[in-house]
Each structure stands twice: as structure tokens, then as C-alpha cells.
Amino acid sequence: MTYRKIVAGLFISADGVVSAPEQWTFQHMTEQATAAIGAMIADADTLLLGRRTYQEFAGYWATQTGPMADALNGIRKLVATTTLTAADWTNSELLDGDLVRRVTELKAAPGRTINISGSVSVVQTLFEAGLIDDLHLMVFPVVLGGGTRLFPADGKRVAMHLEESTTFDSGVVHLHYRIGG
Predict the structure, then answer these.
(1) For residue 23, how many other CB atoms are within 10 A of its CB?
(2) Structural contact between residues 49 and 104, judged by C-beta atoms closer than 8 angstroms
(3) What's the pLDDT tens digit per position in 31-57?
(4) Which of 19-33, 35-49, 67-81 is predicted with the least confidence, judged by mean pLDDT?
(5) Of 65, 78, 58, nearest to 6 (Cα)?
(6) Partners of 94 in the β-ladder
(7) Alpha-helical runs (H) found in the chain
(8) Residue-averaged pLDDT of the chain
(9) Mind giving me the DSSP string for 81-118?
(10) pLDDT score of 181 more than 60
């Protein structure tokens, strides 16, 4: 049986913080970073988002135009939430039930890559369940000193294989890991 890949992409500080990237990433965003993000979206036919990320993205991208907006507005979006009752952004639907079970079913269904953008708690849950195949980290040259970290100190050890690394002119480093060594 062939499984779809699940690829998670996150912005992360040099000290491992992933929370509130809107407060510390934009001064380092360049065409190189935007192109890397666009390439990830282009490989996917589904975007899985947590509630908070969905609301932030929908609030911004639904009214934008251009290649990135067209890609995000056009892609199928699944929202992992227990609190929303509707998903009004174009091509969006709520993902109900147990997240791990539902994503396992999605992974076995026909289709292309399933991307996760941001959505830290979704990534953590699926990472712990062994469902993430690739991890793209954009490491920003900033130390925040506090905030939500992608990998909690009490997490399990997971082997990762570096597939590719690219340093952008802004000092951002894009790391692409395949999970499981």
C-alpha cells in the first residue's frame, strides 16, 4: 500500500521556539524564503491546519491575491479543531474526530502530499504518533529566550536524516529532514 507523505513546515527561532512567529520572522523574510514555502505548497493537495493557524491564515490570505495567495486559497484545507463549528475560507472543512485516527485515514487515502503549516500542537501530536514523514524548519537568526518549543524536553528520541539545507541571504536556514533516519 502506498501512503501519502505528511510534511510539516514551521518557523523556529535559534533556541527552538515556534510560538508567535508573526512577532519575530517578517524582518527576515525574503524572496528565497517565500519561494521555499511556495515549493512546499506546490507539492501538496491538502493543507492541514490547527484552529489558531487556520484563523490567522484565513483572516489574511482569503483577501489577498498573487501566487502565494492563489495557492493557499485554492488548496484543500482541513482544520483540526474541537471548537469551531464552521470553516468559511474557500476549500476548507473541519476535521472531526480523533486527530491521529483521521490523519492515519487521510494518509492511506489516494492523493498527493499533506502539508502542515505552523499548527504546533497538531505537529506535536502527529510527530508523537509517528505520522510526520518530513520536517521543514526555517531557523531564524533570533534567540527568544522563552515561548512554546517544538520539541518538549520530555519528548522521545526520534532519528532524523538531513535531506537538504539552504542558507538564505537574510540568515534564515532552511532545514529539510526526513523522519526516521
Answers:
(1) 10
(2) no
(3) 888 888 888 888 899 999 999 999 999
(4) 19-33
(5) 78
(6) 79
(7) 31-42, 51-61, 67-74, 99-108, 120-128
(8) 91
(9) -SS-S---STTEEEE-S-HHHHHHHHHHSSSSEEEEES
(10) no
**What would the grid cell of residue 30 be?**
525574503
CA 89 to CA 84: how far, in whole Å?
13
Instruction: For residue 36, give the nearest of 164, 180, 181 by alpha carbon.
Output: 164
Cβ pair 99, 125 in contact under 8 A: yes
CA distance 9 to 179: 13
Question: Which one, of 114, 169, 160, lies nearest residue 137 by Cα?
Answer: 160
Cβ contacts of 142 within 8 Å, gap of 6 or more? 13, 14, 24, 28
Burial class (CB in 10 A: 0-12, 13-18, 19+), 91: middle
Q: Is the pTM of this model over 0.70?
A: yes
Cβ partners under 8 Å of residue 97, min gap 6? none
Q: Is the pLDDT of residue 162 over 80?
A: yes
What percentage of the chain carries pLDDT values higher than 90?
73
